[in-house]
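Continuing the batch. This is chain 6 of the set; chains 1 through 5 are on the previous pages. Same settings as before, nothing changed between runs. Recording input and output for traceability.
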Amino acid sequence: MVKAVNALRTKQMAWIILTWLVVEAVDFLGFFSGSLSEKTDFYLYPLYDMMDSELIPELMSADVIKMALLKHMRGRTLNDAFIVRAIRDSTAAEQMKMFLIRLGFGLKVVVTGNVTQVDLPGDAGLGLRAAVDILENIDDIHVAGLASLDVVRYWLASEGVEAYAKYKEPDLRMNRAAWRAFAVVDDGGVNSRMSVL
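Output for chain 6:
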């Protein structure tokens, strides 16, 4: 987001486009009162968290930050923008392809996601993984992988990511009698630990 805002401020780009896929009850958004922005703003909180909170209202009122649901991008051509495509790999391969063929001229596109966080059943949510496999050898497309050490959160988040990476699917079907509750014990961050109850 910092690069997007800098590109906007230095007039390298005309606007920032934030785009995402709403998985949860996307077809029911029309039933709620308010504008599209009011109905979907909470999906953008992770992107807003990366920006200076005082800058957001200024950019929104100047109408230089555009929000676009993936569902509403069909038929559009996106030009002169910094596009941030945030996904949890809830995107199907066809949706990812549809997004990529919307790209016009004067763009910089950043697609973020985690191929281990799939919200759709089966292979339906593997759009990011498919895009990486298909596009990584094309000039000017760069793929950067991150590891648990790159998690910029509390150290327990990084440890948790590593633990889940080592966990095998059959292990998830453990006997109910073997389940244990755990709690995060925090004594100010110095000696925080997980305790089995």
